Amino acid sequence: MLVLGIETTCDETAAAVVVDGIRVRSNVVSSQVDLHARYRGVVPEIASRAHIENILPVVTESLQSAGVTMGEIDAVAVAHRPGLIGSLLIGVTAAKTLAWALGKPLIGVDHVHAHLYSVRLETDAQIPLPAVGLVCSGGHTALYRIGDFLDVQLIGSTLDDAVGEAYDKVAAILGLGYPGGPIIDGLAREGNPAAIRFPRSRLSRESLDFSFSGLKTSVLYHVRGYQGREEMKLTSAEIRDVAASFQAACVDVLGEKIRRAVEQCSARSVVIGGGVSANSGLRSAMEKFSLPVFFPEMKYCTDNAAMIAGLADLLLSNGRRSPLDLDAITYSQFSHAAN
After folding, report:
1. Do 166 and 212 form a contact (C-beta atoms < 8 A)?
2. Fewer C-beta neighbours within 10 Å, C or N terminus of the chain?
3. Which structural domain, as residue segments, surrounds residue 31?
């Protein structure tokens, strides 16, 4: 089974060809980071226009890299939820057009669900189930109970900022670049994580929800003072310590919530996906976890189309396909937490 996957939920235009849901024949990503860097965040209108320009070249390159023709594709998959509506519409329209023209099945995929599935790409590892899943990125921080990869239940989510969003905002506070996650992660390796005791928001004793807004504000007050002075006078060493201490707080909270979820779900393993799953501090901390922890390969942590095509193969093999009037939807199918 050869599935062509398309991903345009935010600011990456991506296409991939995946065989039997696991083996990645091609994975092409056109990033828009340079377009949005000056704004320190994604501008939806700019993202949509870039997708229009990039979608055909990216799909063409993915087919060429995979060594297949359009006629050899067995199905067309697309991330149709959640995301920026303008960005979603470009990918969904392209996928529907290709599926109709080729007479092939169309499979709409939930982008967040695909981040969980990404741990299965390019590996034969068996994941003990049930598992606890964490999706952590710039737009999402949520916990899931995974009965299997078609049985996913949301059990906790963020009440305010996603963890990746907090990284971007702290990077802005420190006068660093965009995106903030890789920059702060790099600085944190050279800093002292115990230099500043930033707050850890754990909410109630049993809660599986997250809150990073207070942590972000605490960093702001530490850096600029309670009067919000504009001029920052931190040394390079102090900036590294702030980055390390902030990252330590984030990792502590993520780890604590995972532990709670494992106990509540009687889980046998942990699955972590999304852009922040590339974070070295998080990966290092989870090496000491009591259960097996599965991360995607680094190239499948951030938004990509291989995870879309991979999950689509599983959906299709279980009789699930989408109509040609498939909608682009801004919210995830996992929209309400149990806790």
Report:
1. yes
2. N
3. 2-117+300-317
Q: Pick from 302, 309, 308: which is nearest to 273 by CA? A: 302
For residues 290 and 307, membership in a common domain is answered with no
Are residues 96 and 23 part of one domain?
Answer: yes
* β partners of residue 12: 31
DSSP symbol at 210: B
Beta-ladder partners of 27: 16
Which residue from 102, 20, 23 is spatially nearest to 59, judged by alpha carbons?
A: 102
Same domain, 133 and 265: yes
The stretches of 77-135 forming alpha helices (DSSP H) are 85-102, 111-117
pLDDT tens digits, one per residue of 80-126: 999 999 999 999 999 999 999 999 999 999 999 999 999 999 999 99
One-character DSSP codes across 177-192: -SSHHHHHHHHHTTS-
Would you state the structure tokens that stand for residue 331, as one six-digit string?
């919210």
CA distance 62 to 29: 9
**Cα distance between residue 337 and residue 339, in whole Å:** 5
Please check whether residue 122 is in contact with residue 297, taking contact to mean a CB–CB distance below 8 angstroms. yes
Residues 162 and 75 in one domain: no
